[in-house]
Amino acid sequence: xxxxxxxxxxxxxxxxxxxxxxxxxxxxxxxxxxxxxxxxxxxxxxxxxxxxxxxxxxxxxxxxxxxxxxxxxxxxxxxxxxxxxxxxxxxxxxxxxxxxxxxxxxxxxxxxxxxxxxxxxxxxxxxxxxxxxxxxxxxxxxxxxxxxxxxxxxxxxxxxxxxxxxxxxxxxxxxxxxxxxxxxxxxxxxxxxxxxxxxxxxxxxxxxxxxxxxxxxxxxxxxxxxxxxxxxxxxxxxxxxxxxxxxxxxxxx
Length: 253
Prior knowledge:
Layout: H1 5-12, E1 30-31, E2 34-35, H2 39-48, H3 50-66, H4 68-71, H5 79-92, H6 98-104, E3 111-113, E4 116-118, H7 124-132, H8 148-164, H9 171-184, H10 195-201, H11 205-213, H12 226-230
Antiparallel strand pairs: 1-2, 3-4
Helix pairs in contact: 3-5, 3-8, 5-6, 8-9, 8-10
């Protein structure tokens, strides 16, 4: 994960010249495996605004804190989670460097978990390491990386939050689903092709009601092998080649 091009760019605080828009559907702007802002992403993020992004991420963490599977990764609750996430999105889309600036003054003390001292989160890589070693995780799964079902639950709730605040059924939302598909690959390489299904799940209120009725558990994702999970997708969504393949598939094509 430390060698992920996006995380390397974040650590270095890289800046780029913003390319002009070319018209048509906004293509995911990934260069050398790293997402970069351009004139189109700035326009999309500006159409939403930082205030709405903060509303979105606050709603997402409301859902995440109530979900037993996702909350196990989150050592402590607080507004700082949603604030940082909103700033990260804004920066990735080209609205300045608010996330980088926030990190300069961030205080993240180490914590003890199952007899070990774990460094606090100071960037995305360390945040994920801390999540894997959260003291709230079961002994059996403590230290395990994110699995496919973790990513699918996370994406479903994430897009549900986006829908709740009204930012998924427009041009920004279409791009954002591709954006998340790109970034989720560093956590679980089989997860990107499930982003569109996760967005569709959030469309139907009965799906969320069933989730609530089942004790905030997504029973349709439990215990699936990868072939079984892929069988839940339409044929044309099952393939994924990554951003560097000669033949690119969604979200890169």
